[in-house]
Amino acid sequence: MWIKKVKLGKRSYDIVVGRNIISSLGACIKKLDIGDHAYIITNSLVKMKYASSITCALKKSGFSSTIREIPDTERSKSIAILSAVINDLAKSDLRKRTFIIALGGGVVGDLSGFVASIYKRGVAYIQIPTTLLAQVDSAIGGKTAVDLKEGKNLIGAFYQPALVFSDVSLLKSLGIRQLRSGLAEAIKYGVIKDKSLFTYLEKWFKDILKHREAALEYIVKRSSVIKADIVSRDEKEEKGLRTILNFGHTIGHAIEAATGFKKYSHGEAVALGMLIAVEISQRLKYTSQGLATRVEALINAAGLPTRISGTSLRSIINASFRDKKFIGSRNRFVLTTGLGKTKIVENIPLRIIEEVLKGRIG
Length: 362
Ligand SMILES: NC(=O)c1ccc[n+]([C@@H]2O[C@H](COP(=O)([O-])OP(=O)(O)OC[C@H]3O[C@@H](n4cnc5c(N)ncnc54)[C@H](O)[C@@H]3O)[C@@H](O)[C@H]2O)c1
Fold this sequence. Notes:
- It is built from 13 helices and 11 strands.
- The protein is of the alpha/beta class and about 350 residues long.
- The chain folds into 2 domains: about 1-175, Rossmann fold (3-Layer(aba) Sandwich); about 175-360, Dehydroquinate synthase-like - alpha domain (Dehydroquinate synthase-like, alpha domain).
- The chain starts with a strand and ends with a helix.
- It binds nicotinamide-adenine-dinucleotide.
């Protein structure tokens, strides 16, 4: 089993990555001394596929468990579901020391982490990510949240898990669209921090889309190292370091919002956002045409979208002004200055953003 530590003093934790490692889950949790009862939050699809192997592994190490299903939709990241889950948790949590397990993709992970952060002023939780996107990104770093109708992730907390347990064998049931979404976040790490990861993805993306575990394991490990190191140095995005993880997200979130969170998955919207960010970087002469061509070629070959449809320029611009990454009316973009390198730039003329977006719409 491979382990990467997220170093955060008393809040440090391990990211465990491997293949077919569920049988060692109980032993990993035992060492943490966080309780004796697991309240597992998941959805019906993931429950059907993996809940029994998880509960068996827990039982083997003496843990009891309860499973709580939430609907399989982004709308589960809502105050209504949050409140229903917390009420249920309080009812079932009578005599035992309970900790929470998030078993699922980013939706389950974000909601469960937020439940853990506020229930009894904070209980321990474990992330068992089951989508590629969650393994490379959302399960790590303690950003937890629910959405409001006014925008995504508007209520949340920084609350670190006690363990991230990424078994790439759980990804075998993942659909191609979800694999592509996760791949988009891995491409992001390549562009912002790791030229060799980007080159690896150019060479091996087909293996990832074919569920080849060696390739999946490689990108989950590389992404975990990059994210863990950034989070260890700037846990709450106060030093400008964690900000680079938002590469592609400023416009990506706006595209998701402008299309009602229905047309594009998170990863697909991020892919489009990255293309916009790379093109703006090129217009402002921070990077070359060559890089823009390479990033677009990889995104396109991976089957991610390269053109925006189902919305208008105005809707995307309006949605971007509501995003947390816009400070007041000033915009702030993470741009690239070459593979593996970034620059945060504020106040990019709206005209340039609009021109680049216009070229991608339709
Ligand atoms: N907290 C963070 O740092 C962070 C970072 C990026 C994204 N996010 C959030 O993550 C969410 C998106 O996450 P996601 O892409 O994982 O979406 P998701 O959680 O909706 O999962 C996508 C789909 O895959 C299914 N699924 C999950 N595991 C599966 C498996 N092993 N086999 C088959 N199907 C499986 C789910 O049931 C769902 O239908 C968004 O809400 C986004 O805001 C959070």
